[in-house]
Amino acid sequence: MLQIVLLSDETNALATVLPGLELLSHQIDVVPLSSLGALKHVRQPDVVVLDGTTNMVAARNTAQSLAARDTPVPVLLALTEGGMAAVAASWCVTDVVLHNAGPAEIEARLRLASARGPEETQDESVIRAGNVTIDDGSYTVKIGGTPLNLTYKEFELLKFLAQNVGRVFTRAQLLSQVWGYDYYGGTRTVDVHIRRLRAKLGADHEHLITTVRNVGYSFTAGRDSES
After folding, report:
1. What pLDDT, in 10s, does the model give residues 118-159?
2. pLDDT at 206 over 80
3. Can you say whether the dihedral through the CA atoms of 168, 201, 225, 125 is positive or negative?
4. What's the CA gap between 116 and 9, in Å, rounded?
5. Least confidently predicted of 17-21, 145-149, 171-175, 212-216
6. Which of 2, 51, 57, 133 stands 20 to 30 A from 90 (CA)?
7. What φ, ψ does residue 112 adopt, rounded to 5°?
8. What φ, ψ does residue 54 adopt, rounded to 5°?
9. Per-residue pLDDT tens for 179-204?
10. Where in the chain is the DNA-binding region found (predicted)?
11. Rounded distance, CA 93 to CA 126, Å?
């Protein structure tokens, strides 16, 4: 029997998101998709079933956030027929399943996903955030295997933020940590580099760097705190 967490904001999610799942003999906990932090209060699941049947942007951001956790888990994404056309490798899910799949298919996909497990980073110099890979040894950043053309300071800024996931830094703190105490430029330098980084990360990944209003910036690998 597998330990499964179903992430969904739907009312009666078991019956609406993936009805066939309810017919299987697994331990299932339903956690609101909007309360991803609640996962830390649930025993480490064998598989996370992620609801992508309604809010696909939230599902994508959540999948990338799960992939960036210290202890990532396999993610089975439940989709409608139309959603299948939108999902991509950058979503960082282990597998996908149609919401109306039968119990036998769901069981097979759960079994394969749990056996496959999440990819583990072997090299400590490599930082992974969803589909973004930051290699400190070679000073390269890749998205889905495609290198990004970053300047030295852009790389250092992204690496520093990614090494401190969830922590908010003021512009002054980022200046001292990335540019050094002997740098005499203004804090607008940070804003310019953040803007360039987001542009280079692209629409699918710019949300990794979050603006915390009136404070500074954070690397969350999840949803933006402001639009």
Report:
1. 554 345 577 877 678 888 877 888 887 788 899 999 999 999
2. yes
3. negative
4. 27
5. 145-149
6. 2
7. -70, -40
8. -125, -70
9. 876 666 677 889 999 999 999 988 88
10. 124-221
11. 20
Q: Encoding tokens for residue 135?
A: 């290699």
CB atoms within 10 A of CB 20: 18
| Phi (first) and psi of residue 31, to 5 degrees | -125, 135
Instruction: Enter the tokens of residue 199.
Output: 């542009």
Say if strands 3-7 and 47-51 run parallel, antiparallel, or are unpaired. parallel
Question: Under a CB-based contact definition with an 8 Å cutoff, are residues 109 and 97 in contact?
Answer: yes
Spatial CB neighbours of 91, under 8 Å, sequence gap ≥ 6: 59, 60, 63, 64, 77, 131
